[in-house]
Amino acid sequence: MNQFEFTSRQKRTFFIMMGIGLVSMLLTYFMDDHYKHLRFWTNYLHNTVFFAGLAFISTFIIAAFVTAWAGWYVLMKRIWEAFSLFLLPAIILFIPLIVGLWLGWHQLYIWNDPDVVAHDEVLQGKAGLLNRGWYTFGTLLIMGLWYLFAKKMRDLSLEEERNGAGPDFAYHRKLRVWAAAFLPIAGFLSVPLITLWDMSLEPHWYSTLYFWYTGASWFVSAMAVTVLLLFYLRSKGYFPHITDEHIHDLGKYVFAFTIFWAYLWFDQFMLIWYANVGEETAYFKLRRDFYPVLFYANIFVNFALPFLILMRNSTKRKVGTMVLVAIVVVLGHWVDFFLMIKPGPLMEAQHLAGEHATAGFVPGFTLPGLLELGTFTGFLGLFGYFVFKKLTEAPLEPANDPYLEESLHHHA
User: Fold this and answer.
1) Residue 129 domain-assigned?
2) How many structural domains compose the chain?
3) Residue ranges of the chain with pLDDT lower than 50?
4) What is the pLDDT of residues 87-102, one digit of tens each?
């Protein structure tokens, strides 16, 4: 089967997931009104950034493989095209955060408080970037530009499908130009957005490795989600030409970027520890002292487990093993973003409220609770519904891609 059918049962499942997410967010909002509903807003930001990142990095993956003249991935490229187009819903998801920033609905970013900035020389020095205007127009314009490239690459792919490869592979040549142009745009323009969305939650802290670290987390998560989706669709009779060799290559990417992520984690930690600069070490001290379970579990779940399981070459071809690792990786890196996002706003809010930071258990912050998992389920349902809808709009196997034969006869 080469044309995906989005069944009513699948739609119902995604609607139930979105319903769980909506109920979880409503309960989070009304059950906790501390610090302007901080638990709700951090949950919303956490999941918006995570799934927006999957869309962005999928666009990057397509651009990188096209620019590299890769062929092995062609059979599964429709999945990444569908992921990449989620950039449009992601832009919409950021609008409540932006409106809340202007209207004072949330207390996520202390640089948005004029009274705090007036007495803080560090925040005054960073005000050129850390301001509502940059957050608003930077998010909308940069993500809009990313979506323009994602949509253009998708359109060229569909034109190639409808009209054939064209004389001298005209469509693919145009695609290669757009893909190569996107790579530096993705690299440079992701920096201000990651700074604004995540790193500025603790604006006195900074790290030049943070952007690589975030991108690596998105990349390995996207590969893991791809593995899970491929196995599911293969079980339904789709993607009959996806072989163990393709899965093996996806497993190698999960394995390789797990190591790369761990390298960045250690590098960032080691260099900041070695420098012993108060502004920098505070980031890790906060997480080690107040979030010890997540701090140490993070490196075990996101590095040690996938590394040890996937080290053996044969495990990358086994369905059960790859599904297990993919689930661990997706949930593990979702928790990694939880640890990146949650501590800063809570500590800043407690400080502004004149309270002393506590190492005691804080629901929804010390560890993800049921409401956090419910919110994640809702966002996952929205992401899944959108992706499945996009998969119906084109044949799953691109018949006129010039590298299709290479993908069909791929050997890892």
Assistant:
1) yes
2) 1
3) none
4) 999 999 999 999 999 9
pTM beyond 0.90, yes or no: yes
Nearest to 206, CA basis, from 191, 218, 188, 217:
191
Amino acid 359: pLDDT: 61
Q: Domain of residue 272: give its range.
A: 8-408
Give the tokens for residue 378: 């809702």
| pLDDT confidence of residue 275 | 83
Asked, for residue 238, whether it belongs to a domain, the answer is yes
Pair of tokens at residue 394: 């084109």
Residue 303 carries which DSSP code? I
Residue 2 belongs to some domain of the structure: no
Query: CB pairs under 8 A, 24+ apart, for 24-32?
Result: 24/370, 24/371, 24/372, 24/373, 24/374, 24/375, 24/377, 24/378, 25/374, 25/375, 25/378, 27/371, 27/374, 28/364, 28/371, 28/375, 31/371, 32/363, 32/364
Tokens at 44, concatenated: 């919303």
Tell me the residue type at 228.
L
On whether the CB atoms of residues 316 and 252 are closer than 8 A, the answer is yes
Cα–Cα distance measured from residue 74 to residue 5, given in angstroms and rounded to the nearest whole number: 20
Query: First-to-last CA distance in the chain?
Result: 25
| Closest listed residue to residue 146, CA positions, set 83, 70, 226, 209 | 83
**Domain annotation covers residue 3:** no
Query: C-alpha angle with apex 224: 219 to 230, nearest 5 degrees?
Result: 125
The CA-atom distances, in angstroms, between 336 and each of 81, 255, 339 are: 25, 17, 5
What tokens does 323 get?
Answer: 């599904």
Residue among 333, 327, 316 at smallest CA distance from 252: 316
Per-residue tokens: 270: 């080691």
